[in-house]
Each structure stands twice: as C-alpha cells, then as structure tokens.
Amino acid sequence: MGEVRTLLDGRGLVESPRWHDGRLYFSDWSAGEVVAIDLDGRTEVVARVRSLPLCTAFLPDGQLLIVSSTDGRLLRRDDAGNLSVHAELGGTGWNDIALDGRGNAYVNRMGFDLASGEPVKPGGVSLAPMDGGQGRSGGRGGSSPHRGRVREVADDILFPNGMAVTPDDSTLIVADSYRHCLVAFDIGPDGDLTGRRVWADLGDGTPDGICLDEEGAVWYADVPNKRCVRVAEGGAVLHTVTLDRGGFACALGGPDGRTLFIVAADFLGMAGEVVTPGSGQVLVTQVDVPGVGRP
C-alpha cells in the first residue's frame, strides 16, 4: 500500500468515482456537477445536473449515464456533451448505478426520504434494459417480454448504496449500508436477479460506494468509520485505508489499474448541510491488486 495523497480539495459532497479513458469522473452533489480530473489534477466540468443523489456510469460505447434522482430519470450524455433521457425511472429516491457488459443499467432506490426523518423502509434495485427503456433497437436478442421496460428486479435492501457487476457479468454486488453487509445476486440472461445471498457480513462496517479487484475482493468506502476497506467474500478484512473524514466511494483505475481513488468529505448528517462546505476531496493511493469490472 502506498501513502494517501490529495489529488483535489475544496469540493462538496463528492461521490460516484469512475475511471474512464485516462481520467477519473466523479460527482459533486453539492454543486450539481459531474467533474473529470486527470492524474495531474486538471479538472473539467462535463455535466451539470441539479440532483441529490447524482451517480454515474459509462455505457459500452463510452457515453455517460447520469442518475437524475430528483426527476426520476436516467440521462445520457453524448460525445458533444448534450443530455437526453435514456430511461424514465419514475418517482424519486434513486441512488447508485452499475452496468453489465450488454449495457443493462441497474439503478437502486431508497425506500424512504433520508433527510425527512421518516421511518426507514427497505428499497430495491431496478433494471433499465440495454435499449434504455425507450424502445430503441440494439443489444442482442429482442424476444424478451421485458425488453424496453424499467422494472424492479430486487427488493428488501434496507439502504441500497454502491453496486458493482463482476467482469463475467454473472453477479451483481450491492452494498446494504444499514444492514452492514454486501449482498450478491446472480444475473440471468434477461438481466433478472436471483440467488440472493450475503456476500460479506461487515460487522460494524457501513458500506457506501464499492469497487472490485482482480482477486475477487471488494473495496468499500465507509462514511461513519472514516475508512476504505478491502474485504474478501465472506467478510475477511484484507486491507484498511484510514481517513480523516468520511469515505463516500472508491474506484480502482490509473494506467495499470492499481490506483485506488477515494472521494471523501467531512460528514455532518443528513439534516441540513450534509458535509462541511469545501471539505470534499479526491484522494489517491497505490495498491497491489488492480481493479476489474466496469465504471
């Protein structure tokens, strides 16, 4: 493990880091911006969407998908920077997103308003199929009765947070923050989720954003415990990166896939200002095992 250094400072509630095409993309929920940064610290705002949460993923063709939770839409950014509706999700409370190799988008949703103080209710995971739920052609097959329709494919996740799809497209791993565990599902040919199981019991760990590495381990960021932790299936702790503020999400990338990017901020709670203004950082450290999967 290398030392932790600061690549960028002075942001707000930072989330959803994704390594793509030589840069790290992340969201600043406070500013309503999706930002790209290179390893020299040069930044570019690539999209502005006023939404909380504001998570992203990349389609196989390189176009960026953005979860606009506020209006219940999945947006697509084309190469010219224009935004269009990729899928109508409906309602609010949408959070993180992960894609499989066919372009199927898994988007999870909280079952309660975190900021309002209403009773906690489980949320779930929905699937926006490869054609974006808009009836466009593309992908493979075409005979599925579910094609083009956004549908819920998993429920009873108390606080669904970070997600990742394994490189062989066989498994979706979901962080359940309030149950302090990682949950796994088998991915079927039509994108349906079956075979639910606890992938790792994290004890006092509170997983937020996650990523996968070549040895099949998961890195998870932890806000209340101010750390980023690498765990094996079953929950054995392999490595811990200690932080001085809440770790909101992490991603593996860089030229050889061995740079661990951590987005962190000083967490204040869900009522009012969520993080201390200007405390959001992008941190980097070198690890031994490179990342896998899709951003």
TrEMBL record:
Please indicate if the UniProt record lists Ion transport as a keyword: no
Map out region (Disordered) in residue numbers: 128-148
Q: Pinpoint the SMP-30/Gluconolactonase/LRE-like region domain residues.
A: 15-265
Matching entries from Pfam families are given as: SGL
List the SUPFAM superfamilies hit by this protein, alphabetically. Answer: Calcium-dependent phosphotriesterase
Task: List keywords of the entry alphabetically.
Answer: Hydrolase
Q: Where is the composition biased (Gly residues)?
A: 132-142
Q: Which family is annotated? A: Belongs to the SMP-30/CGR1 family.
Q: What is this protein called?
A: SMP-30/gluconolactonase/LRE family protein
Q: Which organism is it from?
A: Actinomadura meridiana
